[in-house]
Specification:
Elements lengths: L2 H10 L6 H15 L3 E9 L5 E8 L6 E3 L3 H9 L3 E3 L17 E9 L2 E10 L7 H15 L3
Antiparallel strand pairs: 1-2, 1-6, 2-3, 4-5, 5-6
Helix pairs in contact: 1-2, 1-4
Bound molecules: methionine sulfoxide.
Amino acid sequence: MNNELITMAKGLIDEKLPLVSNLSNLSSLIKDNIKGTSWAGFYLSNEMHDELFLGPFQGSVACTLIPFNKGVCGKAAYTKVTQLVPDVNKFKGHIACSSTSRSEIVIPIIKNNECYGVIDLDSDDYDNFNEEDAKTLEAIADLVSILF
Ligand code: SME
């Protein structure tokens, strides 16, 4: 695990701030500290917990609405399990927001057994993310869950 990144995330999160402020700074922190990341940000669950909408992010323009169980983000939200995708072309139903994206990792944000959103990272390189990134980002998702 990248304990340094987790410590920085802990230092940034301030429960007194609006959610959008916390998530905006976190998306920047994550993009700057996980190598090879072209896009990092949040998709948040609607009230019914059946659709994700685009939240704060760093990177190029992205799709705005993703139903639970569609694409990599929707699968992470629906199954509540981290999705580590070394080659997006081999993931059935991958939603291509960017034609240059090659690998992706999506971590669900869980509180009281409900998915409140996901952290999504894309890379223009194949196989950019690994298990260590997954553990680090899962720890950050746990920190974020207190904000919901
Ligand atoms: N590729 C994602 C969609 C979001 S973008 O990567 C920012 C997916 O398949 O869910």
